[in-house]
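Worked example

This section walks through a single chain of length 362. The input is the sequence exactly as stored; nothing has been trimmed or padded.
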Amino acid sequence: MLAAVLLLPACSKDDNNTVIYDNGDELMEVSLNATAPTINTATKAVVDQDNWTTAGHNFGVLGLANSFNWDDTSVAADKDIRLIDNAQSTITAIQPNGYSITLDKPYAYPAGYITGLYKNYSFYSYYPYATVSYTTTTATCTYTLDGTQDILWGIAVAEDKTVGDVVYKGYNARYLRKGGEEPNINFNHLLTRFTFKIIAGNDPENNIPPTELEVRKIIFNEIPTNAMLTIAQNNATGGELYCDGSDDIILKNADGADATATTPGTDTSVSMGESIMVPSNTTTLYKVSITIGLNETGKTNHPALANEEYTSQFSIEKSNKSAFVKGDSHEVTLTVNGMRNINISATLTPWNTGENLGIEIN
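Given that input, the structure is written out below as tokens.
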């Protein structure tokens, strides 16, 4: 008679009642940390280290096995391929000066000691949360851009951990027990951001002082608004944002309404609306339309022009004609002289170090 014998590794329990096996494995919970994207000026629409723990900022998190197929058929045969399948998650502040990702529920690394196969995972996260589609080698989501979304993406890929002559790959429970670092997802912005300020010029037209005028609309023209984000590719990369189509995007307030008409400041500029965030890719020039009209004081003093407004289109481009860069933010100052003939005088350098845009409205 033949006897079937099932060999199990010897095990014990630690003080936390965690199962630990003689080979150093345990059923270990997945823990994710996060590094905030860099933004110098916070707005409601922009997600940064000052506000990304706010309720309602929901991130998607994926934990996917490297070098496995991620499609539905493959996952039906082995659910551990998608360890974390688009978990709707939030960011939580931790001390000192750090952040952790709070997942929708606890997750544990698969027990590789059972099969002898240790899946190595990479972790991907993105914002705002959306429905994810999988192929064998990609995970993607789509957006319709309206200028208010701040699209973020980040990844955590394990660096090999060498102990003695043995190289351990991660992320998995054995890797972490051998001293490998916990995954930390470093987020980046995938769009280019523009903010707007309005100031009165010194060359009024038709004897109408700039303080009797208002900027009513700022519209980016011919913007590709159909966006597809590649959250993950099966070589532990991702973060590409592909955009097509063509539509106009109007500057809005924080509440989502069109930006409030703004009278130019006299000694200092005043802000108009929140910000517009648009795809850059290889873009070297943006077409922008500005509409000017009389404010209430101007309508009283110039009743014949009370119903008049003027719209002109100009271009925003860098002085060296180079492409705009995702993650950069540029402040645009509109100098208002009159209601007609919007002329451009503009210099622009990257947000973090250089000058800002200047546009003169004559």
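What to look for: Confidence is low (pLDDT under 50) at residues 1-24, 39-45, 341-355.
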